[in-house]
Amino acid sequence: MPRMFGTDGVRGVANTPDLSPELAFALGRAAATLARRDAGQRPVAVIGRDTRRSGPMLAAALSAGICSAGGDVVDLGVVTTPGVAFITTHMQADFGVMISASHNPAPDNGIKFFSRDGYKLPDAVEDELEALVRSTTDTMPRPTGADLGTIRTSEAEVAAYIQHLVATGSPLRGMRVVVDCGHGAAYRLAPEVLRRLGAEVIPLNTAPDGININDGCGSTHPEALQQAVLAHKAHAGIAHDGDADRCMAVDERGQLVDGDQIMSICALDLKRRGLLPGDTVVATVMSNMGLELFLREHGLRLLRTKVGDRYVLEEMLKGGYTLGGEQSGHVIFGALATTGDGILTAVQLLSVVAREGQPLSALANQWQRLPQWLENVRVSRKEGWEENPAIRAAVAEAEAALAGRGRVLVRASGTEPLIRVMLEGPDMDQLRSLAAAIGEVVRAELR
Fold first, then answer.
1. 140-159 burial, b if ≥16 CB within 10 A, otherwise e?
2. Catalytic residue among 54, 100, 102, 219, which?
3. pLDDT in tens, 197-210
4. Is the pLDDT of residue 140 over 80?
5. Do 329 and 215 share a domain, yes or no?
């Protein structure tokens, strides 16, 4: 039986067996039961959601489950994923829940849990939740009368989150910023935060109707934002995904500024201010080698992890590092948040622009992105490719040919019978040739 929890909570098409109201109710009961066991008292849960039509339905079912097990619910309504993480710790709740499918289309949704310290639940706790939900014997409590849980709303907690974001930034007076909220969770919060910092804000896609979230807009579709920045002669553009845990930017020339560039800008700023422990930035294997070379030139180290923000965060916590993220714009400022926060990232990026007094294009283009070439090799089996001597020899030969001026990344697809061969380096013709050579060996060995 497949594991219920994926890398980012429980996901699926809302109102199907994969993500039904019945499942949300059961998850709520199970989470409240575990929280009561661990806290030894009546638990309090924080719930937020993005703007999908299925959000209120799932929130109602989840809340009912929590109340059914004797837990109290603070319903935040529409708020960002990092907002839920922050508020969970700010009000010392026992756990938090975000209902969102991030950058996915409107029919999808998801349920993501946070522990009382604002971090995603460990796998072991998720496994306990799943075991309770799947159990054929219901041993969870069903209190009655005054022991039932309650539900209340709290605008004050959302206001505290806004104030936290504002407090992390520098004044942005005189700066004109276009903000694409993707008809998602940031549609009110992002413009409000930047206005409070003094920026002139031109908002885009702030009219959610339940089905237009991420629809041709937001961080995965920045084209309209790029045009708007030029049309309004703005200093910068900011784009968020559905739950606003990501941020992509656009400079004053209309050019995209991705997560790698954002990390490079913020890394140098944190280094100058003595706020970059270990002179280290954590990123995944997918970040461009140009970033790594640039950081190295400035005495900084890029530490790479597997693909996924949870692996970035794990490495940051293990090493005590305060900056990490992904090329997709999921950036984590460990001293300010427990998860990636798109609005916080926008505040930090624009604050550097304001303090430096330089256009965003100048800061973003301090390094050259190395060309990449990706070869997808279809195979009959993926097992054992990492230990295969012939494949390892072909990779080593390619790395020697690049002579430290590039890199080779070979990994198996998680969903298809493919081995992905990605090379970076200064010469595209060389990359194609080396990738083809590795591909031939992979194809021969795994046929």
1. beeeeeeeebebeeeeebbe
2. 102
3. 999 999 999 999 99
4. yes
5. yes
